[in-house]
Specification:
This protein has 149 residues and is mostly helical. It is built from 6 helices and no strands. It folds into 2 domains: 31 residues; 112 residues, hypothetical protein mp506/mpn330, domain 1, CATH 1.20.1480. Helix 2 packs antiparallel against helix 5 and helix 3 runs parallel beside helix 5.
Length: 149
Amino acid sequence: MVHKRLVLGWLLASVLVTAATATLKATVSMDATLDLPPDVRARLRALKGRPKFLPEEDGSYTGVQDPAARRAAEAAINGVIERVEALLPGRATKAAVLKEFSTGLDQLALTDTEDREQAAGYLEQIMDCLGMESSDGLLNKWMYGFDPT
C-alpha cells in the first residue's frame, strides 16, 4: 500500500513538473525574439508578390469568385506580411507576430470554408518564412471556433 502511494506521488509530481515546464517554455517562447532564417526578408517578399485566393490549376481550390472580395482578402494577407516585415529583426517575437495574424484575420470577410482554409494556409506560409512552428491555436480558433489541441 505504501509502495502504491509512493509511486502515485512520484507520478503526480512528474506530471506537475512537466506541465509547469511546458507552461514556462510557452511563456518564454512568446516573448523571446524569434530565431529568424537569414533569408527571411526575401521569403516574405516572394510570398507577398504571389497572387492569392486564385483558383488552383489542378482544381483543388476554386478561388474567391468575387474579384473585389479576392482583392480585399489578398490585401489583408499582404498587410500581415508588411506588418510582420516591420517587426524585423529586433521586435519579431512570437507574440508580436500572432498579434499581427489576429489583426489580419479580423480584416478577412471570408465565409466559405475553403477560402478560410486558404487564408490560414497563407499565414502558415508566413510562419514557415519566420521559422515559427505553431500559432499556439490561433488559426484553429479562427477556423473552427476552438483549439482542439
